[in-house]
Amino acid sequence: MLASGKNSSHPVFFILLGIPGLEHSQFWIAFPLGAMYVVAIVGNITILHIIRTDHTLHEPMYLFLAMLAITDLVLSSSTQPKMLAILWFHDHEIEYHACLIQVFFIHAFSSVESGVLMAMALDRYVAICFPLHHPSILTPSVVGKLGAVVMMRGLLWVSPFCFMVSRMPFCPNQVIPQSYCEHMAVLKLVCADTTINRAYGLFVAFSVVGFDTIVISISYVMILRTVLGLPSGEARLKAFGTCASHICVILAFYIPALFTFLTHRFGHHVPRVVHIMFANLYLLVPPMLNPIIYGVRTKQVRDRVIQGCCGKDP
To answer: In what residue span(s) does the G-protein coupled receptors family 1 profile domain sit (predicted)?
Structure first.
């Protein structure tokens, strides 16, 4: 069933299949996915609560961590409730505009997450390479402006996705063979030339991820040079320790993200079930792991969690 507009026609709804190839196992697969989502929600809300209530943590590193937690909450919540409804209750229909909203939130906040990780790398670079000037360089005002720029980049870069797709005619096929609406998956249902859309998608991906990974790489090269130049082995170990959690978070985000992105465009020989499972985990594993990694690796956060759970002073 198509709804017609002045310049385009689109389905009233799409059908999300969930995990094609594992239809008989989807009900049980939903349990670990649901548990991971609960961990992501509880973990990120805990991180936000700790940073909000402890004024000693109102420093650049923790302000960026709060931004990361908010981004993770939006990313996971934009897909997981509907995904669980599909796997548990066979609620496969998603309204057309709800699908485009999901596309927007997934891609915009993936861009925001990448930008926050870049900003956190810059913070570690300044803290380790220019420790005496760190408070004067990364003031709360500068942190806020960095966060605003990262947010605006995500919103402005991704908005054309939805606008361009909404102006195009769709084929009668309404089936999206995965658990959520993603730009390339929706684009494959369009009955028109999508060269411009695909080119713009590549431009956004490479301009965002390319720029951010270059800045992150340069930051850590400079950090490595500074750390290796420290005279004390204990000081080197401490400096490496402060970066370890951030490096783990970066790898947890970029590896599945790049796999999903490249598979959508070039991985025609990758089994669909593998691709779909990675696509599901890409938006769930980083939000789940980030608060765990920072909770374990960051002493200040770990102490506050222990204090809150046990009622003891850290």
So the answer is: 43-294
Token code pair at residue 273:
């079930």
Give the model confidence (pLDDT) of 89-115 as tens digits: 999 999 999 999 999 999 999 999 999
**Could you tell me the CA-to-CA distances from 134 to 7, 122, 233 in Å, in that order?**
53, 11, 23
In tens, the pLDDT along 161-178 reads 889 998 899 988 889 988
What residues form DSSP beta bridges with 15?
93, 175
Q: CB within 8 A of 217, min separation 6: which ones?
A: none
> Rounded mean pLDDT of 267-273?
75
- Cα–Cα distance measured from residue 105 to residue 84, given in angstroms and rounded to the nearest whole number: 18
Average pLDDT value for residue range 121-146: 92
Residue closest to 83 by CA, chosen among 102, 107, 57, 58 = 102
Q: Angle, to 10 degrees, between the axis of helix 26-53 and the axis of helix 299-310?
A: 100
Nearest partner of 69 among 301, 290, 251, judged by Cα: 290
DSSP string, 208-229: HHHHHHHHHHHHHHHHHHHHHT
Cβ 184 vs Cβ 264: under 8 Å: yes
Own/partner pairs, 214-220, CB within 8 angstroms, 24+ separation: 215/118, 215/121, 215/122, 216/117, 216/118, 216/121, 216/250, 219/121, 219/122, 219/124, 219/125, 220/121, 220/124, 220/125, 220/247
- Helix 80-89 to helix 26-53 angle, to the nearest 10 degrees? 150
1 pLDDT above the threshold of 80: no
3-state secondary structure of 134: helix
Q: What is the pTM of this model?
A: 0.90
Other CB atoms within a 10 A radius of the CB of residue 147 amount to 19
Residue 174 has, within 13 A of its CA and on its CB side, a CA count of 17
- Residue in this structure with the two tokens 């769709």, named with its chain if needed: 170
**Cα first-last separation, the chain:** 61
